[in-house]
Design a protein that fits this description.
Layout (H helix, E strand, L loop, with lengths): L38 H12 L7 E4 L6 H13 L7 E5 L9 E5 L3 H24 L2 H31 L2 E6 L2 E8 L2 E2 L2 H6 L2 H58 L4 H16 L9 H9 L17 E4 L9 E4 L4 H5 L1 E2 L2 E3 L2 E3 L5 E2 L2 H5 L3 E5 H5 L2 H13 L1 E2 L4 H4 L13 E2 L3 E6 L1 H10 L3 H4 L2 E4 L3 E3 L2 H18 L6 H15 L4 E3 L2 H18 L6 H13 L3 H12 L9 E3 L1 E9 L4 E13 L4 E4 H4 L5 H18 L8 E6 L12 H13 L2 E3 L2 E3 L2 E2 L5 E2 L4 H15 L6 E5 L10 H8 L4 E5 L2 H9 L17 H22 L1
Parallel strand pairs: 1-16, 1-17, 8-13, 13-16, 21-26, 23-24, 26-29, 29-30
Antiparallel strand pairs: 2-3, 2-7, 4-5, 5-6, 9-12, 10-11, 14-15, 18-19, 20-25, 21-22, 22-24, 27-28
Helix pairs in contact: 3-6, 4-6, 6-7, 17-19, 18-19, 23-26, 23-27
Length: 801
């Protein structure tokens, strides 16, 4: 077995040396102010927030725990603090269109003042009008007007009486009109007495009545004119008196809000409304009051008339010191768009403009809205509404019941509010790709992609930033700081997360978990600082909480329930390595792969594929083996081979091509009739040229096989063959590193199939000579001879046929 290809223990992990730090613990470091290792994302974000044109909203993609939301919130907040505070927004009653409240914007803080001004007016207007109409001065003037017209009416009525007496009639005036009563024998008679008269007398009275009506028509018309003039002058005086009183409060408001045309219009309409509805402010008589108490539904909604003069302050930005930054994790339709609230009014659902409530978009208007993509998409109505707002640049509060086709008794159509907002969606790469492919509007509305990477270079600068991140964590959580040895272990753990000696992870949520748990172990230990052993303890204990299936599988391997040989030599059999991902825990396990070869023309048969347990990548890997065998051995003779490849004791599907090199080794072993040492497990894919290609999960695979060998007893010959490209991906546990250091375990990086087969069979692979033959006794020589034998046997059978 060649030892010159073996990795040294120094190559198995890139340990961070705490002595290289120029601090003793993280209390000496300043807190981290910037995000780490996301230069591309930072540039995209900086540009995205500067573009103010339609459609340049932002989608932040990346894995969970990479700090996207925190970065967005902190960065946007710093930016927003330097921007102008947006206007307040109010809804007011529209007297011309009562079901369509008007939207009014005012400078920040002025909306609250306007609301208070109108609340005070609405509270006092009824009392002011009542007091005015009940004052002595008002009553005196009103009576004076009435007396003037009463004198005129009396003069006309006297004239009417004089004319009536000429024709033997008496004039009677009532609130309902003027009546003529006939006089018989010097006495005005009643209707009953009139009916008892004889017909001749009735006829005379009737003729006289016609004459009196003709004679007094002009007088009666003049009386009506005087009465109308009286009513008009009383009304004019009443309106003037009330308006004079009301204007003592409204005139200062006209001046105060002179720069706001909508408010000017609103105040003028209030003046007109008060004059038109003076009776609304007068006390009801007892009969009406009793009716309202006994059968209130007969009078409809009992809201005071002056409630229309109030202001619904929808958005109050008086406390802001810059542009708003709103972040929310429950963007339901109503939370996002606002809503109309309803109340049960005697069995009917009613509403008014004061019951309009703002949504997230209203509050973020003029600033920024940060939402989780998954939360928005889980509410279909919310996603469509958000896109509609971004397209139209305005927001309309609508009743969800109407959108769903359900009728309501009373509803409003509030005036749309113009929107100037930058939306930041935070989500995964998967969601981004789905939306980009299947939602045509998404790519038009979210043109800036801020893509967070899962890893960053393991440079001195980034290591120091990670140390400052740990310092920030300690200060924010008000807990003990980390010793430099603990920081070094966190750096190593960060590389482990990305399985790369040259990289660090940007999944800070996973790092924070270890920081929290290491701190707790340090507290339990009574330490003043978090040391390296506390971090190591946290990592190991975290694994132990999740390794149930790993341990169960290891026990089955150890006792032989799952048949894996780790210390013998077998022809056509090899240990391949795979990775099992449980979500919260990932581990590697060996699998026995066997190959059988015999005369025939079936080629290489993938048993898993035949029974539909093979994924596409695995099936492709097996088919590549046929290309390699044909290219390597069938240049001068037909390939007459039947071979079966199988993952033994596999009861679930298999996918990926990382076992293709192991399958090829088993196939070559079977053809060459050379045994493979079972203490060497293999991972790596192969191409048709026989080159070994890199795979994923190298660290997990090595550690999984090492655990089995250790459980059975290390003999110094065991190890793993990996692709040479995966050396930088090795971040092995201290225990594996120590075993390699002591020569108890070996790791061989290989570039070609030839290198791997020599390690496994302890036999030279052999290079083709000028005569096209391989050196006697080499692996390829033995394989080619076996294939020649198969070809002759097939040719012989073909001749017989």
């Amino acid at each position: 077995m060649s030892k010159n290809r073996e990795l040294s223990y120094e190559q198995l992990n890139n340990y961070c040396n705490p002595d290289e730090f120029d601090f003793e613990d993280t209390s000496e470091l300043e807190s981290l102010k910037d995000i780490i290792g996301q230069e591309r994302a930072v540039r995209a974000m900086e540009f995205g927030v500067k573009v103010r044109m339609r459609g340049y909203n932002i989608y932040m993609s990346g894995s969970t725990g990479s700090g996207k939301t925190s970065y967005a919130q902190n960065y946007i907040k710093k930016l927003a603090d330097k921007e102008n505070v947006p206007d307040d927004w109010c809804y007011i009653y529209d007297f011309d269109k009562p079901t369509q409240p008007m939207a009014v914007n005012l400078p920040a803080g002025m909306g609250k003042v306007f609301q208070k001004d109108m609340d005070n007016f609405a509270k006092t207007v009824g009392e002011l009008v009542s007091k005015t109409l009940g004052s002595e001065e008002y009553e005196k003037q009103r009576l004076a007007i009435i007396k003037t017209y009463s004198d005129k009416k009396e003069e006309l009525i006297n004239k009417l009486n004089h004319e009536a007496q000429k024709h033997q009639f008496q004039v009677k005036t009532t609130s309902s009109g003027i009546y003529f009563l006939p006089i018989v024998n010097g006495k005005a008679i009643s209707v009953q007495e009139y009916n008892e008269l004889d017909d001749d007398l009735k006829h005379e009275i009737s003729k006289a009545s016609e004459l009196i009506q003709m004679a007094t028509t002009e007088i009666i018309r003049n009386i009506r004119i005087v009465e109308k003039q009286e009513e008009e002058e009383v009304t004019q005086y009443e309106s003037k008196a009330v308006l004079q009183t009301v204007n003592t409060y409204l005139n200062p408001l006209f001046e105060k809000y002179s720069k706001f045309p909508k408010i000017q219009h609103f105040l003028k309409k209030i003046q007109e409304d008060i004059i038109e509805n003076i009776n609304e402010f007068k006390p009801d008589d007892e009969e009406v009051e009793q009716t309202q108490i006994v059968v209130p539904w007969l009078t409809g909604k009992t809201q005071p008339h002056e409630e229309r003069y109030r202001v619904n302050l929808l958005v109050d930005n008086s406390d802001l010191k810059g542009a708003p930054v709103i972040i929310d994790f429950n963007p339901t339709y109503h939370n996002l768009m606002g809503k109309l609230e309803y109340e049960n009014e005697f069995g009917s659902m009613t509403t008014d403009f004061t019951m309009i409530k703002s949504g997230l978009i209203h509050r973020a208007n003029g600033g920024y809205l940060i939402l989780q993509a998954k939360d928005v998409l889980s509410n279909a109505q919310s996603w469509e509404a958000l896109k509609r707002v971004l397209k139209t640049k305005e927001i309309t509060i609508e009743n969800m019941r109407e959108q769903m086709g359900l009728a309501v008794v009373s509803t409003l159509k509030p005036e749309p509010i113009p929107v100037d907002i930058k939306v930041i969606l935070v989500g995964s790469e998967y969601i981004y790709n789905l939306l980009y492919q299947y939602d045509e509007e998404f790519k038009k509305l979210f043109k800036i992609k801020v893509d967070f990477d899962e890893e960053m270079d393991r440079s001195k600068e980034n290591i120091m930033k990670l140390a400052k991140f740990i310092s920030s964590f300690c200060r924010n959580e008000k807990t003990m700081h980390f010793h430099k040895s603990g920081v070094a272990k966190i750096v190593d753990y960060s590389s482990t997360l990305v399985e790369d000696q040259t990289k660090l992870s940007t999944r800070f949520n996973d790092i924070v978990e270890i920081l929290c748990e290491a701190t707790t172990w340090a507290q339990i230990d009574g330490s003043d600082l978090v040391m390296a052993e506390h971090v190591t303890k946290a990592i190991k204990e975290k694994k132990k909480r999740c390794d149930k299936y790993d341990k169960k599988l290891l026990a089955m391997l150890k006792e032989g329930t799952i048949m894996i040989d780790t210390d013998s030599e077998v022809v056509g059999q090899i240990n391949g390595l795979s990775v099992i991902d449980m979500g919260d825990y990932v581990f590697g396990k060996p699998s026995r792969i066997t190959a059988t070869t015999y005369v025939g023309k079936a080629g290489i048969v993938n048993i898993e594929r035949e029974i539909e347990m093979s994924g596409t990548s695995h099936s492709k890997g097996v088919l590549i083996l046929s290309g390699y065998i044909g290219q390597k051995y069938a240049q001068d003779l037909p390939l007459s081979l039947s071979a079966n490849l199988c993952f033994e004791q596999l009861y679930s599907g298999v996918d990926g091509d990382s076992a293709s090199s192991a399958e090829l080794y088993a196939l070559l072993s079977s053809l060459a009739e050379l045994p493979i040492y079972q203490g060497i497990a293999v991972t790596g894919s192969v191409n048709q040229k026989g080159e070994i290609q890199p795979i994923g999960g190298a660290t997990y695979k090595i550690q999984g096989f090492f655990e089995l060998c250790k459980a059975r007893g290390l003999n110094g010959r065991q190890g793993v063959i990996i692709p040479h490209q995966n050396v930088k991906n090795l971040v092995l546990d201290d225990e594996v590193v120590q075993a390699v250091k002591e020569g108890l375990f070996h790791i061989y990086p290989v570039k070609t199939v030839d290198e791997g087969i020599e390690i496994l069979t302890n036999t030279k692979a052999g290079q083709k000579q000028k005569n096209g033959k391989y050196p006697v006794g080499t692996v390829h020589y033995r394989v080619s001879k076996k294939l020649e034998k198969f070809a002759r046997a097939v040719a012989k059978e073909d001749k017989k046929a």
